[in-house]
Amino acid sequence: MQSAGVLQNYLGTHEQVADFFNTVSFNLESNFHAYKDVRFKIRMHFESHYHSRQKKWMTQCLDTYFGIPWTIIAWVCAALALLFTAVQTYFAVFRP
Question: Given a cut of 90, is residue 85 above it in pLDDT?
Answer without folding.
Answer: yes
